[in-house]
Design a protein that fits this description.
The chain is of the alpha/beta class and about 400 residues long. About 30% of the residues lie in helices and about 25% in strands. Helix 1 crosses helix 3. The chain binds pyridoxal-5'-phosphate. Pyridoxal-5'-phosphate binds near residues 175, 215, 231, 232 and 235. Catalyzes the interconversion of L-alanine and D-alanine. May also act on other amino acids.
Length: about 400
Amino acid sequence: MSETAAEPTAPLRARAEIDLGALRANVRALRARTPGAALMAVVKSDGYGHGAVPCARAALAAGATWLGTATPEEALALRAAGLPGPILCWLWVPGGPWRQAIEAGIDVSLSGMWALREAVAAARAAGRPARVQLKADTGLGRNGCQPGPDWAELVGEALRAEAEGLVRVTGLWSHFACADEPGHPSITAQLDRFREMLAYAEEQGVRPEVRHIANSPAALTLPETHFDLVRTGIALYGISPSPELGTPADFGLRPVMTLSASLALVKHVPGGHGVSYGHHYVTPGETTLGLVPVGYADGIPRHASGAGPVLVDGKWRTVAGRVAMDQFVVDLGGDEPAVGSEAVLFGPGDRGEPTAEDWAQACGTIAYEIVTRIGTRVPRVYVNGEEIG
Ligand SMILES: *Cc1c(COP(=O)(O)O)cnc(C)c1O
């Protein structure tokens, strides 16, 4: 990931400006909505495309106390960058870097017996206990241990390993399937199942530091799900988990990423001129075209062809024809903004620009995907990195 020091006026082909001040304010807004629970900043997938290390630092500065990643490699990279405090990672495969994680004091999530066996073997080799969190599948049907005999075996064997000093069971946790769909019956079903699985583990003698199930939508809208810790990802970055739940502003959140590019060409063309591969757009009359030098290699979805919105010179324009690997075109309707003018693909929206949610709707996806897929060829430019006042 190329990182650029804050030089907001640097003439870059394209840039993703990351407003760390907004991220800190989002953390504070989330803390205010989740009193009594600790906050885990989920910074997997390079902080949803925003840059894991700077976002993790900003989140901790604003009151988050845990960091969360999917893969152990992501967690190890945070530790290597000097980030302190507890870090949980939850997506393991056999042969993973268990020993390095244990030596780095990283909490490892276990969803089954194979993982417990690997963690125990690595703890023996490391000569120190593994911090393990047992993950329950309360109904998501993805990762996690099934209730019933599977859970009984995992809990029992983890307690045996704890008695031997090989593990410390630091957490019991789960993940929702439909927390972003208000009133979905699976929410209470999962919550009931979670309470039963917690009760069983605690009766057997597990004494976790944290019990947790809430992601961003649950943290924002379901207080009964907060337990000891909420794991927020998308909300940190100022994006609503779902437009049905509300806008970012409804939750006191502000989008952190602004994606923009410099127009690489502005030119006059006659009517009837095909535009971009396949000629799926043909100019309806004499007009001007602007060349926006980002494409699907930069993470602009090809599904945005003919649909994605862009603010150029105060007006919304639409991707004309196909998004190519490195560039796309907008029809400027005869306007002649200077070459090099800023084209804003998305941002917080308060300068009139589209938002990541607008792009998600144009592409038939979710805003999570829009920001996360922005590629490494786009430099991240960090602004408001220092706490002011
Ligand atoms: C990604 C993820 C989260 C964060 O989800 P958001 O909806 O972005 O808040 C929380 N927990 C787990 C297990 C995840 O994979």
